Amino acid sequence: MSFLNVVEIESALMGLASAYPNISKLLTLPYFTAEGRQSHALVVGTGTSCPKTGVLVISGAHAREWGGPDICIDFAADLLEAYTLGTGLVYGGTSYSAGEIKSIVERLDVIVFPDVNPAGRHYSQNSYAMWRKNRNPASSGGQASRIGVDPNRNYDFLWDFNTAFAPGAQAGGTLASADPASDIFHGTAPFSEAETKNVRWLFDQFPHIGWFMDIHSYGGDILHSWGDYANQVTATEKNFTNPAWNGQRGLSGDAYGEFIGACDLAKFADVGNAVSAAITGVRGETYAVAQSFFLPSWGAPYPTSGASDDWAFSRYFSDPSRKKVAAYTMEFNRVHSFFPTWAEMESIILDVDAAYSGPT
Ligand SMILES: [Zn+2]
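Above: query sequence and zinc ion SMILES. Below: predicted holo structure tokens.
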């Protein structure tokens, strides 16, 4: 075994959908990458007359973060097999009963989109391993060094960072960039890229999504909103929709702070801690639970604009008729490497697949 290539990922999804037709459904995503690659997702869940909650798990946005798509495929396969056989699942010291698996499949729609950025992954696996972005050449001016957009700076959350953030917020090099040569080039507009349009399409198709996880590497972190600035729970007017705070976000220690409700914050922490405990149970790995802005494995504030988790959580505040989404980013692998050996990756897959935590 080794890391799946981009063709194997799509064929694995098709294979699962045809092997488990009663409890899964293949989704063909509508937006083709700049290289003409088409992506798929898989819905795991039984039909029922009861209202269900959607759980969306995505990975592969960053091309070099090998292992995320493999985690997602294994996760879906384990769930489908265990439900069909009427068994539980055991990952080292973390286990789920047959009843818990039945509950996940019958009460939730688990939507898995393993490889958001197949063109980037193909380039990373075949030409330049450290490639991060997609392969869109539209802003390159014909120069190879200027190809690609960072999908995880292209979502519609404070995307226009030059307006929304304090000038110094860019100093750490994590926020976003308008330079196509940058690894964090944010594109020409929010959702300018096929990769992010496909994720948005899933949210539009499944308005009952209440949980979201974007799987990245590395570091060993379970991150929740907000990612633009330090959270605060008292001053509601200090929030991403308020233009009065433009030019003042993204620096630690000044007057701004991104508002988050105390109950939302508590829920983020509770479920994040449950996910972390499930991972630790497998073989003792400890994943930190934190606000994205304070990315623990980075060791310094890590302001971002246009990231998937913030956009997913923010949709409710932009339009309260939408379901509120508890959104997370995971940085798997505590060893600081994008390219674990396959033997190590097999252990990491068990760690992350153990993190079902049964959200409702
Ligand atoms: Zn990443």
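The two ends are 34 Å apart (CA to CA).
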